[in-house]
Design brief:
Layout: E1 2-5, H1 10-18, H2 23-31, H3 59-71, E2 76-79, H4 84-99, E3 105-108, H5 121-129, E4 134-138, H6 145-153, E5 157-161, E6 175-177, H7 193-210, H8 226-235, H9 242-256, H10 262-271, H11 280-297, H12 301-308, H13 312-345, E7 358-361, H14 370-381, E8 385-390, E9 399-405, H15 412-422, E10 427-432, E11 436-442, H16 446-460, H17 463-466, E12 469-472, H18 483-491, E13 503-515, E14 521-528, E15 531-537, E16 547-559, E17 562-573
Parallel strand pairs: 1-12, 2-3, 2-4, 4-5, 5-6, 7-8, 15-17
Antiparallel strand pairs: 8-9, 9-11, 10-11, 13-14, 13-16, 14-15, 16-17
Helix pairs in contact: 1-2, 3-7, 4-7, 4-8, 4-12, 5-6, 7-8, 8-9, 8-11, 10-11, 10-13, 11-12, 11-13, 12-13, 13-14, 15-16
């Protein structure tokens, strides 16, 4: 563990402060690459344009195809993905197309177990059987070469909207909208699948305007969809570049003002969170997991229906069901996590470093939560990690489905690509991003995969990369250790690539004890620059020395009407 302070460019911090930004926020923003106050403008007018020289490649073609289909009253079917990004993208697509005048819009979401990921040939056939004329993918499709080919053979018009990295061959769709396809100059390469679909709707509305269907005054408003765009963007843990931050900020503003779909409001209630003070944390750790749980353990249709309904009673019922599924997911995950952690730790001696990459499999693992468990192991051991479960799909019993999570400096999808090239046939399927990826292997090939991934990690990673680093914003001035300052920080948009404020300094430990049902959290009383502060370190049980360098985030603990600052410990350098 190494705690390092971010570099804070003094000129940028000074310029932001001179422009009226709060001194602490000026320092935080400067450390995250913001150079001028106008970069903090989250107005809709500052969003990157959908079309034009720096727009999304293929978006004008997609808009024309959809406008033509709507003019001819054709049937549109969206093929979604079974995670929160896919669910919100589907809901945005259905709601947006209906807002713009589409009369026949339906959706289909694959089952994680029986169908697998993306637009497969059987899914294309099911879409055709529904009488569809146009098939639109959201958050998938860029790797669906066979599925798109089957859809085209069945006479369907195919519009692919996705954000994942393409493989060596692109599908032969009628239109592809994906910032990561070759030749696309759109600057926000990190836009989520839901963001791509929102942009397609913006382009479609412009096309309908050009056709005289409506004008600037009479056109439907699409900005109510931004609540769903914000939720899906944060839940998918994409990098919050300037454009994504604007999308998220716009969604948060509407939620805080009470302007949101019934399902989003119901999810806030089910999660015990307060919409008027909503934060990105609520998206990532309260609402997102409840929607994701449906795709992991049940049917993502539940999640999509929750986001589509305008009936408050129906929304509450669906949100309650999703909450129950999420509780079940947590129970399954807890047992799996403990077992997987024991297996991972058995790969090395107590006085040794973990291997450069970790792969674990157990026949009893549930394939719906392998990704979460991989993330937990990666967090604890700071190694690229894959967790595998036996496939539950009929006829696929001898296949293992794995989900991986990575550490900075190790591009997981590229690593899988190298494994596939070195060991042809071992990977039956794979895809993903730098930090998260999935793959399928035959059960008998698991050990070959395990060795091959470790070999790639051995070649690509050095000691510095394998040492967990916590980047912080340095010491926290005591005058900022106030509940209202914490509220100010929580109000801003933080997330992947625009890290939430984390501070670090040496503190004196006054007392410490284990708390929680399983006694697995460390409750600490400490002195911070001469002032007493309570702190908690979740999931940590080892005692700290009397003086220690802590990395911590700020929170507010409310008790009997009193609001006191609390430190949430992220790590310690001893």
């Amino acid at each position: 563990m190494k705690i390092v302070a971010r570099d804070i460019p003094p000129r940028a911090a000074w310029a932001l402060e001179q422009a009226g930004v709060h001194p602490l926020l000026a320092r935080l923003y400067a450390a995250r690459g913001v150079r001028a106050k106008d970069e903090l403008d989250d107005g809709l007018g500052r969003l990157l344009p959908p079309s034009g020289e720096k727009g999304l490649k293929g978006i004008d073609t997609a808009a024309r195809l959809l406008a033509d289909a709507m003019a001819q009253n054709k049937r549109l079917v969206i093929v979604a993905d079974y995670d929160c990004d896919g669910a919100t993208a589907c809901a945005v697509g259905v709601r947006g197309l209906r807002l713009l005048g589409a009369q026949h819009v339906d959706y289909l979401v694959p089952d994680r177990v029986t169908d697998g990921y993306g637009l497969t040939a059987p899914i294309a056939r099911r879409v055709a059987e529904r009488g569809a004329d146009v098939l639109i993918t959201v958050d998938n499709g860029i790797a669906s070469v066979e599925g798109v080919a089957e859809a085209k053979a069945l006479g369907l018009t195919v519009v692919v909207t996705d954000h994942h990295l393409p493989g060596p061959e692109l599908p032969v769709a009628d239109a592809i909208v994906n910032p990561n396809q070759p030749g696309c100059t759109f600057e926000s390469k990190s836009i989520a699948g839901v963001g791509v679909m929102f942009y397609v709707l913006l382009a479609l509305r412009a096309e309908l305007r050009a056709r005289g269907i409506f004008d600037a005054a009479t056109q439907p408003k699409l900005d109510p969809l931004l609540t769903l765009v914000a939720l899906g963007t944060v839940a998918d843990v994409v990098k919050l570049d300037a454009n994504n931050r604007r999308l998220v900020a716009q969604g948060l503003k509407r939620i805080r003002a009470g302007q949101m779909p019934a399902g989003v409001a119901a999810l806030f209630t089910a999660a015990g969170r307060k919409a008027p003070v909503a934060t990105t944390f609520d998206f990532g750790f309260a609402l997102g997991p409840r929607i994701n749980a449906a795709g992991r353990l049940a049917d993502m249709t539940l999640g999509i229906e929750c986001l589509l309904t305008d009936d408050a009673g129906r929304a509450a019922e669906l949100a309650g069901t999703l909450d129950g599924i999420n509780r079940e997911r947590r129970e399954i995950e807890g047992g799996m996590r403990d077992q997987a952690m024991l297996m991972a730790e058995s790969l090395f001696q107590e006085d040794e470093e973990p291997p450069p990459a970790i792969s674990v499999f157990d026949p009893d693992f549930h394939e719906g939560v392998v990704g979460i468990v991989a993330s937990r192991i990666k967090d604890k051991l700071h190694r690229p990690t894959f967790v595998f479960a036996a496939s539950s799909a009929p006829g696929k019993e001898h296949e293992l489905k794995g989900s991986g999570r990575s550490i900075p400096g190790f591009h997981l999808r590229d690593a899988l690509d190298l494994v596939a090239k070195r060991h042809p046939g071992v990977l039956l399927k794979f895809g993903g991003h730098a930090m998260a990826a999935g793959c399928t292997v035959a059960e008998e090939a698991f050990e070959v995969f395990e060795r091959a991934l470790a070999q790639v990690a051995q070649e690509w990673l050095d000691a510095a990369t394998l040492t967990r680093r916590i980047e912080t914003d340095g010491p926290l001035a005591p005058e900022y250790c106030r509940a209202d300052m914490v509220d100010t920080l929580h109000h801003e948009v933080w997330g992947q690539g625009f890290a939430p404020p984390t501070f670090s300094e040496e503190v004196q430990i006054v007392s410490q004890r284990l708390v929680g049902e399983s006694k697995n959290h460390l409750s600490i009383k400490l002195m911070h620059q001469g002032n007493p502060v309570d702190a908690i370190w979740f999931g940590h049980t080892e005692q700290l020395p009397a003086r220690v360098l802590l990395a911590f985030r700020l929170d507010v603990n409310e008790w009997k009407g009193e609001r006191k600052v609390q430190f949430l410990v992220e790590g310690a350098q001893i």
